[in-house]
Design brief:
- By secondary structure, this protein is an alpha/beta fold.
- The strands form three sheets. It has a six-stranded parallel β-sheet, with helices on both faces. It has a three-stranded antiparallel β-sheet with strand order 7-8-9, covered by helices on one side. Strands 10-11 form a two-stranded antiparallel ribbon.
- Strand 4, helix 4 and strand 5 form a beta-alpha-beta unit.
- The relative contact order is 0.16.
């Protein structure tokens, strides 16, 4: 038995029961966050497929004592603080178990194709008859409506359809996706906000609701300033590599031993940059007097900066800029980022005990939220497939049924 007796914690969401019918990344990101905040998350996994698809998205895998690891590094990224229960939704037994959980759940989240759970009686219309107060979040590629509703959706497809790839990459290069599944992750973040808002409404009124959220909708929502740049100008934004569409100088520059980031956000910071390197000529140059003018003359300005920086080491450039209050920074590898003193101080990496791991624990990326009263919990390592199935009714006994009819 892998459950901790204190899993229903006094965290911010202590006492909230979540039925997780999602897989891959968007839904699991949302439910991991809910679990970190104290909710009890029951993850339903398909025994026919061996569980969540990402269990097989490796290497690397955690080395386990039995030598049969289903804990890929990808799966670890979004599945801590969850109980894994094996249930075949195509069977009456599997459907009955899920309905038993749903009758007690405050939140249900799923990412099947629109209408995919209706045949099992696990769609919102069916479960809301059992539990009228349930918050039911449906994540799909394109949403429950629209001409593309039946199309499948993966992160890469969402980034392509939603426009972000057209903005990412070098000006003369190919459209490029962001290096991680950012469309999935941000969809999960929107899902979390939506579920908590709907939960507050349900607690106040006893009335649940369905949340319809798509990868593509959420991706287009976080086009932010480039999206509104288009809406205002009706001109398609262009790829600028690491450059900024609205600020200059704001880019990556080469030094004599690497690269640094310079991020000047206003005119006073630009003047500080010029003073830092003794370049009064740039400070007095009418072409660079204001941000709009610097944008207009981005090319010659960046040429001057490159000339300055290429005579110095990255460390020297950063020291000069920081001393003069100019926003700047290094470009870390993942290793450098996660082992930095800042990351250590902020608990960016956490260790969780994992009974099946050879080392006895696994390292995970920590939750960035820092609460003064209800701290994030790290109560349960990402589970092996189905490891909590036998104990599910013991867990459910802590939650009263909200069922109106079965």
């Amino acid at each position: 038995m892998t459950m901790r007796s204190d899993i229903v914690s006094p965290g911010a969401l202590g006492g909230v029961l979540v039925l997780d019918l999602s897989r891959i990344l968007a839904g699991p990101t949302a439910t991991q966050l809910l679990g970190d905040l104290g909710a009890t998350v029951i993850k339903i996994e398909n025994p026919k497929t061996g569980g969540d698809d990402t269990r097989k998205w490796g290497p690397p895998y955690v080395e386990t004592r039995d030598g049969e690891s289903d804990l890929s590094a990808y799966f670890l990224a979004a599945n801590r603080n969850k109980f894994s229960v094996a249930a075949d939704l195509s069977t009456e037994d599997g459907q009955g178990l899920v309905k038993e959980i749903a009758a007690r759940a405050h939140i249900v989240i799923e990412n099947y194709k629109p209408g995919g759970l209706q045949k099992y009686g696990l769609d919102y219309a069916s479960l809301s008859k059992i539990n009228p107060a349930v918050v039911y979040c449906s994540i799909s590629g394109f949403g429950q409506t629209g001409p593309n509703r039946a199309h499948p959706g993966y992160d890469l497809m969402a980034q392509g359809y939603g426009g972000i790839m057209s903005l990412t990459g070098e000006p003369d290069g190919v459209p490029t996706k962001v290096g991680v599944g950012i469309a999935d992750v941000m969809c999960g973040m929107y899902a979390t906000v939506g579920m908590l808002a709907a939960l507050r409404h349900a607690e106040a009124t006893g009335e649940g609701q369905q949340i319809d959220l798509s990868l593509v909708d959420s991706q287009m929502a976080w086009l932010v300033n480039e999206g509104t740049n288009y809406l205002v100008s009706k001109e398609n934004p262009k790829r600028r590599g690491n450059g900024h569409p609205n600020i200059a100088p704001y880019n990556v520059f080469e030094t004599n031993d690497g690269h640094v980031i310079l991020a000047v956000g206003n005119d006073s910071q630009f003047q500080a940059f010029c003073r830092a390197f003794g370049r009064s000529d740039l400070a007095e140059d009418a072409r660079f007097a204001t941000n709009p003018l610097r944008l207009e003359n981005r090319g010659p300005l960046e040429a001057h900066i490159s000339e300055i920086f290429q005579t110095k080491t990255s460390e020297a450039v950063i020291e000069i800029l920081q001393t003069n209050g100019v926003p700047c920074g290094p470009i870390h590898s993942v290793e450098q980022a996660l082992t930095s003193e800042q990351a250590k101080e902020r608990a960016t990496v956490v260790k969780l005990g994992c009974a099946s791991a050879d080392t006895g624990d696994v390292e995970l990326l920590g939750n960035p939220l820092k609460f003064s009263k209800t701290p994030v919990q790290y109560a349960k390592a990402p589970p092996r497939f189905g490891e909590d199935t036998a104990d599910i009714f013991e867990l459910l006994s802590q939650y009263p049924s909200q069922s109106k009819s079965q």
